[in-house]
Amino acid sequence: MNSQNSADKTNKAIYDRACNVLTGGVSRNTIFRKPHPYYVASAKGSYITDIEGVERIDFANNMASLIHGHSHPAIVDAVTDQLQKGTAFTMGTEAEVAFAELLIERSGRFEKIRFVNSGTEAVMTMIKTSRVYTNKPKIAKAEGSYHGTYDYAEMSQTANPGNWGDIDKPNTIPVVEGTPQGAIDDVIIFPYNDIERTLNILDQHANEIACVLIDPVPHRVGLFPATNEFVEAIYNWTRKNNSLLAFDEVVTYRVNYAGAQASYTVNPDLTALGKIIGGGFPIGALAGKSEIMEVLDPRGKILRHPHSGTFSANPISTTAGRVAMELFDEKAVLSLNTLAMKARYQIEESIKIADVPVSITGAGSMFRMHFQANAPTSYREAFQTKKTKDLINEFIDYLFLKENIIMINTCACMFATTLTQKEVDRLSEAMLKGFKLFKPKLEQLSY
Amino acid sequence: MNSQNSADKTNKAIYDRACNVLTGGVSRNTIFRKPHPYYVASAKGSYITDIEGVERIDFANNMASLIHGHSHPAIVDAVTDQLQKGTAFTMGTEAEVAFAELLIERSGRFEKIRFVNSGTEAVMTMIKTSRVYTNKPKIAKAEGSYHGTYDYAEMSQTANPGNWGDIDKPNTIPVVEGTPQGAIDDVIIFPYNDIERTLNILDQHANEIACVLIDPVPHRVGLFPATNEFVEAIYNWTRKNNSLLAFDEVVTYRVNYAGAQASYTVNPDLTALGKIIGGGFPIGALAGKSEIMEVLDPRGKILRHPHSGTFSANPISTTAGRVAMELFDEKAVLSLNTLAMKARYQIEESIKIADVPVSITGAGSMFRMHFQANAPTSYREAFQTKKTKDLINEFIDYLFLKENIIMINTCACMFATTLTQKEVDRLSEAMLKGFKLFKPKLEQLSY
Questions:
Q1: Nearest Cβ partner of B112 from A23, A178, A275?
Q2: Which of A107, A127, A188, A308 is within CB 3.0–4.6 Å of B28 for a Cys-Cys bond?
Q3: With an 8 Å Cβ cutoff, are B179 and A131 in contact?
Q4: CATH top-level class for B38-67+329-445?
Q5: Which of B146, B152, B264, B379 is catalytic?
Q6: What interface predicted TM-score (ipTM) does this complex get?
């Protein structure tokens, strides 16, 4: 690292340097905030200290990816040990086998796994695998839901009232300018949790849909769970139409011991994983039925889906992930969900006391606040106008700068096992202060 | 890890377990070999010991990704230190800034960087960025060249005589079954290093091509460099037709201090990086001109290319990468290339002594053997029939099992700075023995 005197170690100074070498000064839009992002010096458990020495409580956990907070000793120890043995080889390691065994035993629903490097790669591989298996070109996904940056997976994630079209047949809206029309034409959009409309839409493309892609608790839609009726209806539709049910559990695998999918009476054919299963290191995984996963088998006479990846299944990510998931056992899941529920309850109390038009949605160890009195039940209801978005940013900044609380920029919390009642109390007190302070602005939004 | 007694610690026993949980028993086709892959116990420098205690010399370096071999002490130390401070945050770190500064200073050609998690992600982001900037839907790429697993980037990577079509207008052949026709239609294929045909083909799609994607020393095409005339001709074509020149240097950045691109009189607009820049950890990066990279800027009024990634620019990969690239200074590049050249020369001697129809291609610290007397100059010339492929596998197995030498399965070596004259001598001796042993089979191939 460049030697700098401490006067140069301000968040603004680092960002000024960053602007010379990184587009917009960041490598992930997630960390951007005005007038500049903040830079971490060190982090332990649920506390992050920035380079100016300010300590904050972390309720974001790197976008839900750290189930045990920062620098967990058991993970640090296991990785430190593996470091001495190497980090990547043109050969296998027992680490990938042991971790796949753990995930399959844990899930009870997965038969085979393939590791990749990110959630984006996991969803891309899931979609490609679905196309091979069904020999169909299109996918269907929910309006507003985020599934990484693969063109097909990201359609309509940011659809807005100006372009989303009729709810009976939502437009397919690309996220990135210049997305080829061919990709747009191959994605069907349906309204989340709306059984009748979704089935109608799917029926119009009955012979073309390789998979129906679902995040069972989609953060960007509004962070409320898919109903069992909805998932069942789609499952039944896929059985009738030789299509696959593909779950994106990159974020939601934390919801139950065996993932959010354990909440439903039917099982997905394929599941994309990522985030917490890496124990803080880059990872993604595709899990599913043997019969379908077989299209990836390198022993096949014809390679139907040739697939590799330089860092896929590397022993650092698979070791860290295994330790993290071993620690996140049934008891840990239960106690984390209980703590998150407690926090949600305390924030609901804060909302009542401050008497502000705010609602909460969520599942398991995740929840999200909405600046509207009634909790949204659809993407279009949860959609934020520019005015709302600006107010949320202001509120998030208030929490970050004045209350030393780190939250996801949608006003969401993704808990880690290192949080305790103490931090939850700090959170609900901070929220109460914030709600009182922002009350006039919050009430104005309703008009 | 499951506790096992040592009798269970055979490569076959691990693979048997793997087959129950991983499709085909592997998570990367690269590591697969018949009847089973081999599993690493530990690795140091250029030596890997498998779980049965067999030590081998590593000339593959995890598919060219480890420029300093395994467990380099400076990288281990830096990562061990960062581990104590955390591995990923919803905030920035100075590590990403310092590393971007280093890469930009080193290159002299890059103006801005964005980090991602893999070479696949880097190429995908490069293609998407090209489409935004030019507002054109298609890309052009070379027949046979590998650019990761994004549908558009992987077209015609495995084209064969049965489907590749007329060399004047090569067919676009998808790698994965079920690839949508829309994606196929958006990729134009040209024959590498063939200026006249390539320009003719590009001209037929002059208004539609967002970028021409080139790996300057494409491993799968045959591992020979693009000629300066070829690169210049494409560069000039892109200037005339409002298109971008996009280099995939995920593998080739090792060739010169400032990448293989430093060998040419013209500069690419965008460059995808990966492999060695991660210091053994998952990484990818997009580098290029500020004006183009700006489409990713989160400060824009309209987000033209919204983009994030949970583990992008994480401080482990950027710290390991910075240390690795600092150590890979001008002197180290020169001395590594000299050693690889020496190895190539010694193997050429072995070929002469054994009098076998084998040729070598390569650049910098990489070379590849071809089981044909004259070095191929095109993908179609380098293309291996099933018979050739089987013989190469047999030869690679011989080296691995009898000579304890690890090579890439195309019969290629990607050197690391931990190799010395001693290992090079072992390599050329082993090759000589192998060539003599395989001579009848090698000669038979020529008929």
A1: A23
A2: A308
A3: yes
A4: alpha beta
A5: B146
A6: 0.97
